[in-house]
Structure formats: C-alpha cells, structure tokens
C-alpha cells in the first residue's frame, strides 16, 4: 500500500449521500478543529478576488464532454461570484486547482467497500508551502491559507442520481477550495439553507452558488 502513502494524507471533504461524515467543517466556513479552530481561506487574492487557476485535463470524458461539459459549467459558475472570485482556466502546469477522476482502486482504498459509492467527490488542500492541510499542526503552519488544491471525483459515475447531482458535486467541491464549509454540519447554528454547500445531494434542482453561498463569500473575502 506504499503506493498510496501520499493519498492517505487527504483532507476529507466530500459530498456525502449517507451520514458517516468527518466534520472539519463548521457551519458556513471551513475550519480545522483543534484546541483553537483555524479558519481556512484561499491565499491568492487580487483586487479582492480569490484567484483560482483551474484545470480539468485529468478528468475523464464523462465530466468534460459536450453536451454536458460539467467541468466548464462548474468552473464558470464560480467566476465572478459575489465579485469575490476569479475562476479561470489555466494550463495544467500553472493551475492551482486541478480536477481529477480518481481511479477505482484509490476510491475503494479511501472509502472502503461500503461507502465507495456514496462519496462523490473530495477536495485535497495544500498550504503555500505545498504541505497538505490535514491536521492541527499543518493547519497552524498554513496560517489558514489554501494555496493549491486537488479535486477528486468518483470513478463510479453511476453513483450520480441525475445530471444535476454531477453539476452540484463539482460546484460544491470548488466551494471547499474557497474555504466554504457545510452549513448543515457542525456548530454553531447548523441549518439547511438553499446552498451549494449542503453536505448531501437530495434532489436539489440547482447546481450553482446560491445567495447563501454568495453571502458567505462576501463575509469571508
Ligand atoms: Zn462537502
């Protein structure tokens, strides 16, 4: 299993269809919980906008091909959100947010043979010194700044219940990269607003940032 030693160091922030959740998210914001919670935020901000340089070259065609083009829809849905985000396509080598389709072996290794079909995506986040933010120590050293991210999506595309659930998941994971948490999990005051950041997809009809999410961005940036 040495092959996966790096992949074990993941920051589990997926979209969950069932319960059983790791919750390093507080309502509305992504934190690392520890002796004192550490709020996490995208590091590269220019003129008040979080600069996400994004690339989807490592996605399988299910996520990128027309007519659905899920990847470009998710990317564009955050660009300009609340006037706080620039989410622009970049080449793979210069991108700071890279999308991948996970391979099945990795997905089973991460989630086991019970939940591998329930987890649809997750975000790995890294500090400005390119260290995975996975625990209190690395969160403190990051100074709360997210500089790079990988977004991994399930290889089991039949896990998606419909087209909207694919779009919702991809948009949701970008929200984590921006430092947004699950409003329905954690404290204080968990709630279930109309939001792209709800921890599970339950037949929502939308797949882009909602007013709740724009408000969170405005507060954060
Ligand atoms: Zn999530």
CATH class category name: Alpha Beta
CATH topology: Collagenase (Catalytic Domain)
The topology string of helices and strands comes to: HEEEEEHHEEHEHEEHH
Global Rg:
16 Å
Give the integer mean of the pLDDT values.
84
Count the E strands. 10
Major beta sheet, specifics?
A: 6 strands, mixed
CATH architecture: 3-Layer(aba) Sandwich
Discrete helix count: 7
CATH superfamily: Collagenase (Catalytic Domain)
Descriptive notes:
This protein has seven helices and ten strands. With 221 residues, the chain is α/β, with parallel strands linked by helices. It has one domain: Collagenase (Catalytic Domain) (3-Layer(aba) Sandwich). Strands 4, 5, 6, 7, 8 and 10 form a six-stranded mixed beta sheet that branches. A two-stranded antiparallel sheet has the order 1-2. A two-stranded parallel ribbon has the order 3-9. A hairpin with a 5-residue loop joins strand 1 (31-32) and strand 2. Helix 3 packs across helix 6 (163-177). The longest helix is centred in the C-terminal third of the chain and has 15 residues, at 163-177. The protein is globular and about 40 Å long. The N and C termini lie far apart (40 Å). Zinc ion binds next to helix 6.
Topology:
Blueprint: H1 5-8, E1 31-32, E2 38-39, E3 41-42, E4 45-46, E5 49-58, H2 61-64, H3 70-78, E6 85-89, E7 97-101, H4 104-115, E8 121-126, H5 136-142, E9 145-146, E10 148-153, H6 163-177, H7 211-220
Parallel strand pairs: 3-9, 5-6, 5-7, 7-10
Antiparallel strand pairs: 1-2, 4-5, 8-10
The protein binds zinc ion.
């Amino acid at each position: 299993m040495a092959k996966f030693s790096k992949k074990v160091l993941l920051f589990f922030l997926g979209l969950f269809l069932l319960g059983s959740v790791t919750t390093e998210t507080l309502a509305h914001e992504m934190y690392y919980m520890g002796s004192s919670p550490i709020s996490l935020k995208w590091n590269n901000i220019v003129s008040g906008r979080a600069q996400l340089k994004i690339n989807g070259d490592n996605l399988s065609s299910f996520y990128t091909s027309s007519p659905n083009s899920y990847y470009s829809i998710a990317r564009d849905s955050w660009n300009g959100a609340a006037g706080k985000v620039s989410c622009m396509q970049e080449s793979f080598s210069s991108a700071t947010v890279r999308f991948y389709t996970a391979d099945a072996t990795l997905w089973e290794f991460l989630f086991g043979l019970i939940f591998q079909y329930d987890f649809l995506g997750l975000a790995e986040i890294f500090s400005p010194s390119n260290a995975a933010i996975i625990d209190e120590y690395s969160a403190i050293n990051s100074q709360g700044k997210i500089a790079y991210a990988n977004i991994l999506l399930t290889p089991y595309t039949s896990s998606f219940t419909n087209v909207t659930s694919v779009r919702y998941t991809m948009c949701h994971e970008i929200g984590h990269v921006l430092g947004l948490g699950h409003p329905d999990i954690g404290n204080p005051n968990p709630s279930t607003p109309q939001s792209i950041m709800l921890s599970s997809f339950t037949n929502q009809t939308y797949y882009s940032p909602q007013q709740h999410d724009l408000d969170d961005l405005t507060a954060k940036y």
